[in-house]
Amino acid sequence: MEEQNQATNTPPKSKQLPPDLKPFVYDYTLEDWQDWIAAAGEAKFRAGQIFEWLHVKRVSSFEEMTNLPKSLRDKLEAGFQFVTLTEIAKYQSTDGTVKFLFELADKNAIETVIMKHSYGNSVCVTTQVGCRIGCTFCASTLGGLKRDLRPGEIIAQVIKAQKMLDDSGERVSSIVIMGIGEPFENYDATMKFLRVMTHPKGLNIGQRHITVSTSGIVPNIYKFADENMQVNLAISIHAPNDALRSKLMPVNRRFPFADLIAACKYYIEKTGRRITFEYALMGGVNDQAEHAEELAQVLSGMPLSHVNLIPVNFVAERNFVRSTKNDIFNFQRILQNHKVNATIRREQGSDIAAACGQLRAKHLELKK
């Protein structure tokens, strides 16, 4: 089943940055730096120094790497560049949520969000410029997919957030890969991001404090299960059956519901880890008692599962409305009666359009 899934339905490559563009300094893992240093004929320990300057001291130029010889700094200057994240807009919510709209070197725009919790600061990162998945209730997919982000462009979002938190002596304690784009369609960059973020000589974010969310790219769910990582997995499910899910999420036509559930069961069996199922509740669409009953039946064979119920965000270009409080609590109650663990997501940043894609969509409309 796994081999069959991985051999079919491979998504086409999205547009990339020009291949002759110099690598970003954050594109490299420590092991990549060790290889580069060896090829450059420099002392081995220099790789660790470079990695520390970038991720622990968080410098913005090679000149600041003062314990490196000038000849090595010149080589770095000639071979690499820092990621350009120009702040277009920054909004702060009454609940402490901070949302950034950044412009990249090629003038595309992405979003990054810092969320304040009782247990620390969480950063939500973007993995693609736009999205081609086409979920009918989401702002991220408006305008389609422009290109994948390079690993360094994803990493730079966390570095930028950490630099802001440095001013108050705080740190990034967790990461959610739930911003614009589908991380599992930019799989290699996402995996390199994870390896850099969790490295003990870098920001050293614990794997269990990172969650990656996918709309259900089945081959890469199998692949992720085999990575032997402790990173949390969330699946955007949003419907309890094929017919409704295909209407809400066109990706379901590529990777049918039954195949997705089979991949999830493989993940649980292989890793022994829980999966979170993200379920956006839309008034009169997928929030009725029969939907909850059907979802409970689907998840009955997966004891290591949790449903995160999300009252849908209003998007002007979409026609969906938020479920009533009664329907939300009734949906949760039905799942719990069937021994399915279910919680209702706490809203954050609603006063600053913090739901992914909303700020970028507004920016694109203004540009037009």
Question: What is the fourth-level CATH superfamily of the largest domain?
Answer: Aldolase class I
For the biggest sheet, the summary is: 10 strands, mixed
CATH class of the largest domain, named Alpha Beta
The assigned structural class equals: alpha/beta
The total of beta strands comes to 12
Q: Classify the beta-strand content into a percent band.
A: 15-25%
Report on this model:
The chain contains 13 helices and 12 strands. By secondary structure, it is an alpha/beta fold. It folds into 2 domains: 25-79, DNA polymerase, domain 1; 83-367, TIM Barrel (Alpha-Beta Barrel). Helix 2 packs across helix 3 (45-55). 42% of the residues are buried.
Quick take:
The active site is at residues 111, 356. With 368 residues, the protein is an alpha/beta fold.
Topology readout:
Elements lengths: L1 H6 L22 H10 L5 H11 L14 H10 L6 E7 L5 E6 L5 E9 L2 E5 L3 E3 L14 E4 L2 H16 L5 E6 L9 H11 L12 E5 L3 H8 L6 E5 L5 H7 L2 H4 L2 H15 L3 E7 L7 H11 L5 E7 L13 H13 L3 E4 L13 H10 L1
Parallel strand pairs: 4-7, 7-8, 8-9, 9-10, 10-11, 11-12
Antiparallel strand pairs: 1-2, 2-3, 3-4, 5-6
